[in-house]
Amino acid sequence: MPDNKKFIENLSGTGKCIGVLTSGGDAQGMNAAVRAVVRMGIYVGAKVYFIHEGYQGMVDGGDNIKEASWESVSSMLQVGGTVIGSARCKDFRTHEGRLRAALNLVQRGITNLCVIGGDGSLTGANLFREEWSGLLDELVQSGEISEEASQIHSALHIVGMVGSIDNDFCGTDMTIGTDSALHRIIEVVDAIMTTAQSHQRTFVLEVMGRHCGYLALVSALACGADWVLIPEMPPKDGWEEQMCNKLSENRADKKRLNIIIVAEGAIDQNNKPITTELIKDLVVRCLGFDTRVTILGHVQRGGTPSAFDRILASRMGVEAVLALLEASPGTPACVVSLCGNQAVRLPLMECVQMTQEVQKAMDEKRFEDAVRLRGRSFENNLNTYKLLSHRKIDSELPHSSFNVAVLNVGAPAAGMNAAVRSAVRVGITEGHTMFAVSDGFEGFCKGQIKEIKWGDVGGWTGQGGSLLGTKRTLPAKHIDKIAEQMRIHNINALLVIGGFEAYLGLMELQAARSKHAEFCVPMVMVPATVSNNIPGSDLSIGADTALNAITDTCDRIKQSASGTKRRVFIIETMGGYCGYLATVGALAAGADAAYIYEEPFDIRDLQSNVEHLTEKMKTSIQRGLVLRNENCSVNYTTDFIYQLYSEEGKGVFDCRKNVLGHMQQGGSPSPFDRNFGTKISAKAMQWISKKLKECYREGHVFANTEDSACLLGMRRRALVFQPVIQLKDETDFVHRIPKEQWWLRLRPLMKILAKYKTSYDVSDSGQLEHIIRLRTKDISAI
C-alpha cells in the first residue's frame, strides 16, 4: 500500500459518539444525508445518535436523543423532508438553552455533531463549539457533571452539511435540496406552458428565495423564461417599459405565451419589493395581455428528492463522518460540500461570513459585488441567461461572415435540444450565420442543412429527444460527400453534440484533414449521452435525466412490494459497457449490489451477495434491490442472476426482474441537464468564435492544429477543452468507455451504505481549503 494513500480501514470511530440533527427549513435529501451519517458512523465503529426536532431536541433531551441502528434508516432515502424532524429553536439562542444542550450531550458521551441545515443553524453550531469549554466548566461548578467527564469530553467537533432549497450558502456549488426544488418548479412550469399556449396567456410565477435568486435564475434558464427578477441584480430604472417591449416582441414572433419568473425577494434599484401582483397589473395595463399569477410556495420544499440530491447528500454524509474522525481539538468547524464534481471541506465561519457579505452588499446597493460574492456558478448562470434571452437587433450585432453548423450524433439524450438552442443563440449573438444539420452525419452527406434563426429554437429547452434528428452513422464512409456539403454551404466551424459516435466522428473528420481542406476548420464536441461514457468528461448531457428515470422506477418497484412478503428485485439498466447508470443509480436508489463490466465478478461474488441479502432479510428489512448493467457479463445474464437469487433465496425471499429499457432515454430533460446543456454549449460556441478569429487569414479560415478539434468536458471542478487526438490513449475503443472513470470511486461508498465490508481509498477526500483561494482557482469552471 503506497504511503500517500489513505484508507478507511485505518480510520477508527471506536469509542466516539456522533449526534446528527436537521435544523431550520427542511429540504429534500436531508434524509439521505442522515442515512449516510448513521451508516458510515456505525461502519467505522462509532455510536450514532439521532437528535430529533433539531436544536429543540438537543435542549429538551430525553427521548429526543436516541441511538440509531442500521435498520432505523432503512427506506428513508426516497422520503422528502426530514424524518427526524426540524424546528426553529428560540431556547438554543439563549445561554441557558445551550447549557442544557451541553449537559444532554455530555451525559450520552456525544462530542461530535453533524448539523444539516442553513447558515443560521450552522452559525449556532459554531457558537456552541466556541462556548463548549465554558459550558462544561459551569456544569462542573453546578455539580451536574464530574471533573473527569469534563476532561474526557473537553472538545466538541462540528461538521456542517448545507441543507437549503435556496442554494444561498457561499462556498458550495449546490446545497442539499436545491436540485429537487428545481425539479418541482420545472414540473410546474412545463405544465403551465401547455395551458398558457392554448390561451395565449402570460404567466407570472413566484418561486422561493427571500434573499437569494438562484432558484428563479436557474429555472428561468431551464425553461427559457422571457424575464426574471432576482434580489442580487435588480432591473435598471425603466425596466417596466423594457419588459413590456420584450413581451410584445415575442408575441409578434408568433410566440403564444410569456413566462415571467420572480424570486419572492425580488427588489428594484431602490430596494423596494417587486411583487407578482405589481407585474401582473403592469402587463395588463400596458399590453392588455391575459395574465395569471401562480405562487409555488411550499410545493418547492416537498416531494421526493431527485437523484442528484440523494447522491450529493450520501457523498456529503460519508465525507462528514470522515471529517469528524480526522478532527483534532484545534480543527475549526467545517462544512463539507461539492465543488464541481469534487468533495471539499471549507471553514464554516468563512462561508457564513461570505454569505452575510452578500446580504450586506445588497443592502448597500452594491449589486455587482453581490453577484460576484455568490460565486462562479451563480455569476455564470446570470451571464448565460442574459446572453440567451435578450436578442440584439441586427445593427447591434458584430457581423462575422462566418457560417457555423450544429448537428446531433448518436442516440438521443435529454438536454440535446437545450444545447442546440444555446449554441444557435450564442452563435447569432456573436454575429455568425448558424446552420442546423438534420440526422447527424447521414443527413450531412445528403445535404440536409438549413439556416436556423433565433426564433426557430424558442421553447426547445424543455423538449426531450433530438429535434434536429440524430443517427449513429459515422462520417468516414461518406467523407467525400460531407466535404462537398461543407464546401457548398461554406461551413467555417462545426459543433457536434452527441455520444461516443460523435467522439469517433470528430476523430475521423480530423484524420480526413490531410485529404480534404474543408475539414481544416475549428471543430468542437459537447458530450451528450445517457451512458456517460465519453473520455475527457466526468458528466455528459442526458445522464442526469436517465438517473432520475432509474431512481423513480426503482422507488415505484420497491413500493409495489410494500405489504407483501420479503422480495428482491433484479433491475437491468442501459449504458453499453459503461457501469455509470447502474452504479450511481444503485447509490441513489439504495440498492444492495450493482453488477458492472468494469468490476469483474464471478459466481463466488454472486453467492456472497445472495447470502448477504438473506442475512439482511432476517432482520426488519423487507425489500432488496440489485442493479445489473446490460453488458456486465456475457454469461451472467439478468435471467441467470434472477434464477440464481430465486433458487438461493427460497424460503427467505422471492424475486422479480425488470428490464428498464428505453424509458431511460426518454422524457423531459431534468433541470440539471437543461442547465448543463445550455452552459456547456454556450462555452463551446464562444470557443468557436475565438478560434475563428485566430484561424482567419487572407479571406478564409484554416485550422489544422491538434487543438482546433476539441472535446469540451467537465473535469473535476472545471470545463476543459481537450484535443480529441490526445484523448485516444485514455479510451478503450473496443468497449467504448474511458480507461479511467471517476465514479468507480463511488462504488465502495455504495457497498458501505449497503452493509458490505470493503476497502475505501479516502486519500481523495476533501482537505480543508480556504474559500478565498477557492474563488481564484476556479474562475474557469462552470
From TrEMBL:
Pfam families for this protein: PFK
Q: Which GO terms describe its cellular component?
A: 6-phosphofructokinase complex; membrane
Activity modulation notes: Allosterically activated by ADP, AMP, or fructose 2,6-bisphosphate, and allosterically inhibited by ATP or citrate.
Q: Name one GO biological process term.
A: fructose 6-phosphate metabolic process
Is Isomerase there in the keyword field?
no
Annotated active site residues, numbered on this chain, are D166 (proton acceptor)
Q: Which family does it belong to?
A: Belongs to the phosphofructokinase type A (PFKA) family. ATP-dependent PFK group I subfamily. Eukaryotic two domain clade 'E' sub-subfamily.
For this entry, the protein name equals ATP-dependent 6-phosphofructokinase
